[in-house]
Amino acid sequence: METKSSMYLSLLPLWFLCFIIINLVSSSSSTRYDDHIPLRETNEEEDVHFPKNFLFGTASSAYQYEGAYLSDGKTLSNWDVFTNITGKIADGSHGKVAVDHYHRYPEDLDLMEDLGVNSYRFSLSWARILPKGRFGDMNMEGIYHYNRVIDAILKRGIEPFVTLTHYDIPQELEYRYGSWLNPQIREDFEHYAEICFRYFGNRVKFWSTFNEPNVQVILGYRKGTYPPSRCSKTVGNCTRGDSEIEPLVAAHNIIRSHLAAVSIYRTKYQEQQRGKIGIVMNAIWFEPVSDALADRLAAERAQAFYLTWFLDPVVFGRYPREMQEIFGEDLPQFTKDDLKSSKNGLDFIGINQYTSRYAKDCLHSACEPGQGGSRAEGFVNANALKDGLALGEPTGVDWFNVYPQGMEEMLMYATERYKNIPLYVTENGFAKKFDLSRFFCRFW
Predict the structure, then answer these.
(1) % of the chain residues with pLDDT over 90
(2) 153-to-43, 135, 351 alpha-carbon distances in Å
């Protein structure tokens, strides 16, 4: 994703008004639609109803919405620390208060009920539940808070979709051992996940371990625009890091942490609680910039270095072939226990799909300097422009073009690659800048 550290983190101005559609895509479906009818051509008076089992809702994340950043026993998260560093956020804003969802969740949930949505996807603050990770006690005030939130959601007839971590972790884990660059974090995530299953799993039927770990790794360890702000000096404004190797290490530890959490859920909680567990990925559809074989292969590599980088190990127990060919021995190896877990590594895949890109080969073709296409990116230049024309309709955010075909292609690609695994569209939307609004879909 082309998100940069110059993003606006505050509510002024806000970027998106969007609703999140959560819909099951059957793996047995083979229907393809070539006619994309613009919304403006539909009959506004047409009475349209969703099927009874269709979930339509909204989404948030803890750091983005909650505020109350040091209230009731919570300690600093990595995002609390990051946004407090001068120059990391363009306007100097932060999430210390945000929209104060921590205190105002009842009225926020009333708004959702009035809107008629029947699902709410939100994340828990790891630092609110385990302020010092496994090196300290549980914060029962955090447990009580989320119990009240979940009960209030269910009281309004809304289905809770809970994400264990949406980019934010206790800063304690960064200080102690370097967080996702250290295999120790698997033990911390496993411990955290089990606490959440134990206290909330009797009411939560949909769990996501991570939200967009591909974005978290790329921006945190390759470009350095997210915490912990690590990258090579040739890539970004970082004081430390290795943009080629560290993303591989961080991704590997995230994948192993996901598998550990799923294993605990399946062996100790799932049968009784009867819930489902998966992972949510950011998904970009990559169109070849030309019909040349090199560009078509580049589009496949782009997916391997973005989406299937995380999903293939969870589903198949191995990294994508394209990554193996380019990185070779630099790719971390999975243990036998990891591979055993990966045979049953998830119940569903969440797809966050906003935009699409052209993919241009940089492995066998020359690419302009500074335009991507490095080894760490699979030697692919991903760009929204072709001959000066954008792929899809430009919006109020420069990295975000509306290309409806990309949603269809992405879902069909994932359905065919990961057969028999349900897909949920966990985020999508239209980007537009607003001066004032409480409807704020995502700044990440």
Answers:
(1) 75
(2) 33, 31, 23
Amino acid at 267: T
Reading the block at residue 90, the tokens are 């363009």
Flag whether the pTM goes above 0.90: no
Q: How does pLDDT run across 3-45, given as a tens digit for each residue?
A: 333 333 332 222 333 333 333 333 333 333 333 334 334 455 5
Confidence of residue 46 (pLDDT cuts 50, 70, 90): low
Residues that are catalytic = 212, 427
Q: Which residues pair with 56 in a beta bridge?
A: 21
Query: Whole-angstrom Cα distance, residue 222 to residue 236?
Result: 8
- d(CA 182, CA 74) in angstroms, rounded, equals 23
Radius of gyration of the chain from Cα atoms? 21
C-alpha 48/C-alpha 361 separation (Å) is 43
- Is the CB of residue 355 less than 8 Å from the CB of residue 406? yes
In 265-335, which residue ranges form alpha helices assigned H by DSSP? 270-273, 293-304, 308-316, 321-327
- State both tokens at 6: 């110059």
Residue 443 has a pLDDT of 34
Helices (H), 26-135: 62-65, 78-82, 101-115, 126-129
Q: CA-CA distance, 286 to 26, in Å (whole number)?
A: 22
Contact status, residue 350 vs residue 410, Cβ threshold 8 Å: no
Please tell me whether residue 347 adopts helix, strand or coil conformation.
coil
DSSP letter assigned to residue 77: B
3-state class (DSSP) for residue 213: helix
Cβ-based burial of 33 (10 A; exposed 0-12, middle 13-18, buried ≥19): exposed
Tokens read off for 37: 């009818």
The closest alpha carbon to 353, from 430, 422, 279, 416, belongs to: 430
C-alpha dist (Å) from residue 88 to 84, 92, 216, 228, 425: 8, 8, 16, 11, 31
Phi/psi of residue 264, each to 5°? -65, -45
pLDDT exceeds 90 at position 50: no
pLDDT digits (tens, 9 = 90+) for 89-137: 988 999 999 999 999 999 999 999 999 999 999 999 999 999 999 999 9
Q: What is the pLDDT of residues 357-396, one digit of tens each?
A: 999 999 998 888 777 889 999 999 999 889 988 899 888 8
